[in-house]
Q: What sequence folds into this?
């Protein structure tokens, strides 16, 4: 594959030594506790690792040093990523602040806003949630109604948000509010407020998977000081669009198993549950073909991720490939979840209790929870609209005659 | 697309402008209408050879430029866009690979310079039936001669040199047979895609072994498969772009049909599959250039993925063009026919899905 750039051996050694000195051996091969839907209190080792990475700034290796980030080049960041992988170490600095809000604030925020909000994200001290969708504003996000009235030195915010991921664990919210009711897209502003205050009520929503990764958030007479407005008044929509690009690139991760994937590769699982024929092939040939197809799609997706990365580094213009990543990645994830269930048969239908192992119970929850990935972050259909209109240049429908 | 070196960019640009000027789809149509028995335009092939394209992968000491498979893939992709039929794939890629990988110094210096300058057309003769099964070979090599039948040999009508798979005392291997040997009988086939193809019977034809056994057969085939996939990438991309242009110009119900979401989303799906396929094809060609240990599985991945995508896009090209796409006067049918022939060449999607899994042990 393509060369992803300078691998300075001295830097690699430095990274390797630092990881081995700071990463607690007890956490080797463990997932980031924050990435689980149901969270428990972090252990002392988990906290130590978060603090070490947070102080070093390597959780967000390419963010500027002046706000606590790693200040590394993309090539150096890749070395850090490779060395973490080699050591079996997760990146403890994660969440919506890292994935979406931080990069957006670095681009659009004032100096004071960056100084206030970036360092706690870098250190993993504060968690953020996204106040975008509303009961009446899903795919048509710009029709949102949560109102922010100008009260001189502050805005008074009232309204309801929904599908607020991780709101029950969040410290702050980046939120889209309506500051002008006479316009649609040009009447939206982007504001920030703390979640722990009287006017903010959070109710987790139980999903078909039995888990509650999303919440309803009720906002009543919340005062937002004007210095917590990001970008210009009524200029929030373009910031939101930029933020959604960060979200989509983060959500397509069909890579190493995907968010709802199993530790074991699909073909190994199939061999175990279905058995093999004399030639060592998965015994059910129809299932085998579909497993192969999924593996091929997963690998082509990874190859495309590498290609897009190489192209963005090389001399070619920005890659059109990035526009396909969310749909391509989520398709692989959902197919894999369906296949996993089919491979396990009735064992893959256990909901709780005895008679099922942990992987089996996770498979059914993952299958159901995974239905969300083609809905959130811009549904599959919205992604297709974006490809059709922005990449392929197909026109909007006019009134039919 | 892949990040290219300066040489590769120049090669690609040269191929693009030559193809657009000298070899548009109308040239392929003319070739088909004239019923040329070779299945390609000899004058166009001479121009391609003069530009050095037949020697892109061949080492400089044998008259080539040693630019590698990704470079040759770029040319094949451009040729594929306009369905340009030429012996470049069969001779300058597949047969040249066999000689480079399995030929003795003598064999290389006898044949490679002639393949590189286009004066000799060579090809692989591997399949013995309607399905690609390179491990099932009835043709035999004994006492210096080959006896057996090979089918669907690409560029068979034009070939002056065959690289033939046959069973010898050590199992299946590759052999060189000259087409003018008295023991060689060609039967030209007229296929739907109008390219040159023949069944070839070897009746005790004099043959020289290449070294490498069955491993060589698979290595050579992998190079040919990646080359076909590159050509398919170009053809599928053009079929898609032509269809997209039609969606933007054809008016029904008072508006261009490309404004209908039912068609937009199918276009977005094709675009998504084309991007995934491009990654797979470029990764396979790069793996060959790097002699990666996972070359075989990456080639099967590329051929399977590209085959599915070209299959989809060529069907949609006809469907989205509606009635005009059904007429012989339109080019859509050419892409549909090329797609099916290219899918079958050196193993279809079912073959390569199975092979991808077998290589990985399931």
A:
């Amino acid at each position: 594959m393509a060369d992803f750039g300078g691998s300075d051996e001295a830097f690699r050694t430095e990274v390797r030594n630092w990881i081995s000195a700071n990463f607690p051996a007890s956490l080797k091969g463990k997932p980031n506790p924050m990435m689980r839907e149901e969270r428990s209190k972090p252990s002392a080792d988990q906290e130590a690792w978060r603090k070490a990475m947070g102080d070093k700034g390597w959780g967000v290796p390419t963010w500027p040093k002046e706000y606590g980030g790693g200040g590394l080049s993309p090539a150096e960041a890749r070395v850090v990523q490779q060395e973490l992988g080699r050591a079996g170490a997760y990146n403890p600095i994660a969440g919506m602040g890292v994935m979406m809000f931080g990069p957006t604030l670095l681009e659009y925020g004032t100096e004071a806003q960056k100084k206030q909000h970036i360092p706690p994200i870098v250190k993993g001290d504060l968690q953020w949630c996204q106040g975008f969708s509303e009961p009446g504003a899903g795919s048509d996000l710009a029709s949102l109604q949560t109102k922010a009235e100008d009260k001189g030195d502050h805005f008074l915010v009232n309204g309801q948000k929904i599908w607020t991921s991780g709101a029950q664990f969040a410290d702050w919210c980046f939120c889209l509010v309506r500051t002008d009711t006479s316009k649609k897209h040009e009447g939206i502003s982007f504001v920030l407020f703390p979640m722990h205050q009287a006017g903010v009520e959070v109710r987790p929503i139980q999903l078909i998977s039995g888990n509650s990764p999303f919440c309803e958030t009720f906002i009543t007479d919340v005062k937002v000081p004007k210095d917590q407005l990001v970008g210009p008044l009524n200029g929030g929509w373009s910031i939101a669009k930029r933020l959604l690009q960060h979200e989509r690139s983060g959500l397509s991760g069909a890579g190493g198993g995907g968010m709802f994937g199993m530790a074991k590769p699909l073909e190994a699982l199939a061999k175990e549950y279905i058995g093999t024929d004399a030639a060592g092939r998965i015994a059910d040939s129809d299932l085998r073909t579909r497993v192969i197809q999924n593996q091929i799609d997963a690998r082509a997706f990874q190859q495309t991720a590498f290609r897009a990365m190489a192209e963005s580094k090389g001399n070619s213009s920005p890659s059109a490939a990035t526009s396909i990543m969310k749909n391509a990645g989520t398709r692989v994830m959902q197919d894999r979840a369906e296949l996993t269930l089919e491979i396990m048969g009735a064992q893959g239908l256990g909901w709780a209790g005895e008679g099922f192992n942990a992987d089996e119970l996770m498979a059914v929850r993952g299958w159901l929870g995974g239905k969300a990935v083609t809905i959130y972050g811009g549904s599959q259909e919205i992604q297709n609209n974006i490809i059709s209109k922005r990449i392929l240049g197909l026109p909007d429908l006019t009134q039919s005659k | 697309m892949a990040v290219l070196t300066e040489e590769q960019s120049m090669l690609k640009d040269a191929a693009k402008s030559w193809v657009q000027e000298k070899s548009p789809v109308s040239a392929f149509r003319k070739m088909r209408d004239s019923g040329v028995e070779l299945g390609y335009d000899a004058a166009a092939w001479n121009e391609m050879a003069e530009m050095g394209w037949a020697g892109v992968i061949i080492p400089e000491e044998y008259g080539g430029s040693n630019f590698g498979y990704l470079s040759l893939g770029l040319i094949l992709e451009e040729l594929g866009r306009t369905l340009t039929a030429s012996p470049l794939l069969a001779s300058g890629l597949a047969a040249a690979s066999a000689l480079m990988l399995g030929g003795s110094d003598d064999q290389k210096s006898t044949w490679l310079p002639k393949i590189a300058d286009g004066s000799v057309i060579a090809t692989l003769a591997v399949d013995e039936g309607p399905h690609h099964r390179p491990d099932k070979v009835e043709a035999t090599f004994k006492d210096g001669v080959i006896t057996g039948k090979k089918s669907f040999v690409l560029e068979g009508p034009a070939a002056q040199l065959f690289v033939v798979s046959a069973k010898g005392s050590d199992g299946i291997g590759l052999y060189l047979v000259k087409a003018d040997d008295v023991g060689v009988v060609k039967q030209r086939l007229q296929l739907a895609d109008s390219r040159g193809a023949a069944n070839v019977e070897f009746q005790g034809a004099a043959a020289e072994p290449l070294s490498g056994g069955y491993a060589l057969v698979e290595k050579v085939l992998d190079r040919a498969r990646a080359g076909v996939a590159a050509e398919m990438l170009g053809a599928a991309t053009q079929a898609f772009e032509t269809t997209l242009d039609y969606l933007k110009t054809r008016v029904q119900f008072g508006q261009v049909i490309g404004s209908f979401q039912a068609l937009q989303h199918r276009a977005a799906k094709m675009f998504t599959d084309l991007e995934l396929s491009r990654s797979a094809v470029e990764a396979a060609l790069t793996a060959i250039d790097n002699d990666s240990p996972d070359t075989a599985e990456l080639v099967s991945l590329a051929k399977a993925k590209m085959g599915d995508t070209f299959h989809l896009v060529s069907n949609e090209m006809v469907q989205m063009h509606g009635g005009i796409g059904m007429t012989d006067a339109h080019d859509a049918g050419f892409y549909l026919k090329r797609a099916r022939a290219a899918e079958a060449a050196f193993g279809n999607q079912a073959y390569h899905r199975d092979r991808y899994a077998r290589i990985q042990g399931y």
In short: The longest helix of chain B spans residues 213-249. The beta strands of chain B are 122-125, 140-142, 145-154, 161-168, 171-178, 184-189, 197-206, 208-209, 251-252, 255-256. The interface with chain A takes residues 1-3, 244, 247-248, 253-256, 258-261, 263-265, 267-269, 271-272, 275-280, 282-283, 286, 301, 304-305, 350, 353-354, 356-358, 360-362 of chain B (CB under 8 Å).
